[in-house]
TrEMBL record:
InterPro entries: Homeodomain-like_sf, HTH_TetR, TetR_C_31. This is TetR family transcriptional regulator. One of its GO terms (molecular function) is DNA binding. Keywords: DNA-binding. Residues 28-47 bind DNA. It comes from Streptomyces azureus. Residues 5-65 form the HTH tetR-type domain. It comes from the Bacteria.
Length: 206
């Protein structure tokens, strides 16, 4: 297999674009070559098959959509209260909105995983790892709520992201006076973490 790291990364990113735009059925090596602007047959020199390409797209997307360490460090200078949790949820929404293509590709990976057992195992492992990492971060940071709160936030934000990035009209005006998506982010956090709930570090929300 070819081993040019920069070319491989460009092909994987091209795969992300194709996957988000055409879905898994349109993710062919020829389509990736065309998207990347390279000679036909290039992708076949870098990936053993579609399953390999899909796994590498999964790995790449978790890097592309990961929090910026500098942003996290800046946010962690704030009091460990509900407003900080809201700020982290805003950051999550902002990252997904900025890289809408990447997030749509993640959704396509979920659908493809239901049809490919080998992808289901690896994708489940990576997403579960992200959730467990979020729980560990929440505990270590002393943020309000515990693992159950993080799990519910995860499920609620997943639903909000899905609707906002695919069918935004569903949410417009559903709660009068509540903006989309920021107002809904605030409502989600306020519902999951009522005022006065103590954090893991013993810090009360205002």
């Amino acid at each position: 297999m070819a081993s040019n790291p920069e070319r491989r990364a460009a092909l994987v990113d091209a795969g992300v674009e194709v996957l988000a735009r055409e879905g898994a059925r349109g993710l062919t090596f020829r389509a990736v070559d065309t998207e990347a602007g390279v000679p036909v047959g290039t992708a076949s020199n870098y990936f053993t098959g579609r399953a390999d390409l899909l796994r590498q797209i999964d790995t790449r997307l978790h890097t592309r959509l990961a929090p910026d360490p500098d942003v996290v460090a800046e946010l962690m200078n704030r009091p460990r209260d509900r407003s900080l949790v809201t700020a982290f949820m805003y950051d999550l929404m902002a990252r997904a909105t900025r890289d809408r293509t990447g997030y749509l590709a993640l959704m396509e990976l979920r659908l493809e995983a239901t049809r490919r057992p080998e992808l289901l195992a690896s994708y489940t492992k990576s997403v579960r790892g992200d959730l467990e990492e979020a729980m560990e971060f929440h505990r270590t940071a002393g943020l309000p709520g515990g693992d159950e709160s993080v799990a519910v936030l995860y499920l609620a934000m997943l639903g909000l992201l899905l609707e906002h990035l695919t069918l935004p009209g569903v949410l417009e005006g559903v709660l009068p006076g509540v903006s989309v998506p920021d107002g809904l982010v605030e409502r989600i956090v306020a519902t999951v973490l009522p005022e006065g709930e103590a954090g893991q570090g013993g810090v009360d929300t205002p």
